[in-house]
Amino acid sequence: MGTKLAGKVALITGASAGIGHASALALAGEGAQLVLTARRQERLSELAAQVRAAGGEATLVAGDAREEDTARRAVAAAKESFGRLDILINNAGMGNYKNLVDTSAEDYDELMDTNVRSTFLFSRHAAPGMIEQGSGTILMISSMAGIYGFAGEAVYCMTKFAQVGFAQALDKELRPHGIKVGVICPGGVKTEFGLGKGRTVESVAASDMLEPEDVAGAVLLACTQSDRSRIIQVQMRTMAESLA
Fold first, then answer.
1. Distance between CA atoms of 238 and 36, rounded to whole angstroms?
2. pLDDT of 79-94, one tens digit each?
3. Element at 140 (helix H, strand E)
């Protein structure tokens, strides 16, 4: 186990699978103590067992990231279990790939609440403690769909552009308090994300999309910068992407 994050406490939303799961293992591998939250208690317990088997520490908070109580409980768990919170990874999210005319108001609400409301809630409740201690890192896991608009993904793009703008504004607001804010924007990633919402298990498996561990590497990079530097934005695409 490495030591780059020894003594640091990291809270990861959507930790039960995909990028969140991979990021948890990456940060724990460098000594971070973890608070892991997601809706699926069983999957969280399996991840925590992996972390502990490797010599790490993890506290679990099962709950829906769209609910303010979940954010409150997760931040409180960090302080109760480890005495502080140093890193917040806003990873909880979902995709829904539909043309605008096929997108319902219910689809819109689900995307906005999962991708944007959760990011706001966890950042809102993590920030006061970081301001008090004069340090911290807040990362948003957005998407290349937060940089470019894509047909058939208008509402999804809206949510991901919102995360990028939120990160840019918070960078200016929180940097005077010693807090680093950044955003990671990967292209497609081989995860459960979007399954049944425009992607299938087969289409993901057959693709040349990024692996969750690729994105976790960028998360780890952003979390291990020197005190005098910060990662503002990372854009990631697969090497298999067409040049045209």
1. 28
2. 999 999 999 999 999 9
3. strand 136-141
pLDDT single digits (tens) 25-81: 999 999 999 999 999 999 999 999 999 999 999 999 999 999 999 999 999 999 999
Map residue 87 onto helix, strand or coil. strand
Pairing of strands 87-90, 58-62: unpaired
CATH number of 9-236: 3.40.50.720
- Of the residues 97, 108, 148, 156, only one is catalytic, namely 156
- Say whether pTM exceeds 0.85: yes
- In one letter, which amino acid is 160? K
Per-domain boundaries in the chain: 9-236
Question: φ and ψ at 34, to 5 degrees?
Answer: -115, 140
**How distant, in Å, are the alpha carbons of 22, 101, 205 from that of 218?**
11, 35, 22
Interatomic CA distance for residues 19 and 92, integer angstroms: 9
Q: Is 156 in the active site?
A: yes
Residue 191 binned pLDDT confidence (cut-offs 50, 70, 90): confident
